[in-house]
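Human: If only I could read backbone structure tokens as easily as an amino acid sequence. Take your time, and here it is.
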Amino acid sequence: MRNIIVFGHDPRMESVAGYFYHLGYDVYENPEEPVADACVITAPKLSEAEEEILCAYMTDDQILYHGLLSAASRQKLQEKGVTCHPYLQLETLVTENAQLTAQGILSIAGRDAVLLESHCLVLGYGHCGKAIADALAKVGAHVDVAVRRKELKAEIEQHAYGYRNLAQWDHYAYDKYSYVFNTIPAIPATKVGIVGFFQAIRPITTNTGSRVIGLRLKLFSIVLKIST
């Protein structure tokens, strides 16, 4: 297939379109007219309206590479016989994304802080949390990691990071930390009852921005500074 359709109005998709264009593909951005025998690549997250348009647009002679889609949309596409590949499940992409995230978020934090010998707290220990903790340690920061899953304690301590139980966030003192790096999406944060934690600290950079970190997967990556 030489036709590439880039779908979604996320600014990052401009880079995707340019990448395939320079490889010699015929690239269409959010076309209204049908393009046969095409690979369709969506933004990592679509709005509800965009998902509806996507489901109506797709045909069984197209191949879809998608990010997050609702169960209802996935069902509609399956019923239409569309071949779907969820790219966010690709380990290589997720790992490389996490590394880009760590690089971007540390470059932002470094504008306002000397990270060497600073005390930093990383919330979450998924792909992005691990990459950020590793990057902080490499620049000489003292790193603690707060997680909900107790079974991660051994792995965290194996890397010489301090362990914090996120479910017991109110049991710890936070005045030693210069910065907090959050990798937890908004909904899980609400479910584990740590909204009070976020209210106790103020953001210095509330949104890292997709242009800096590439294909960002998390909803909110925030660099936070403890209130004084």
Summary: Confidence is low (pLDDT under 50) at residues 202-228. The first helix runs from residue 12 to 22. The radius of gyration is 20 Å. Residues 182 and 214 are 17 Å apart (CA to CA).
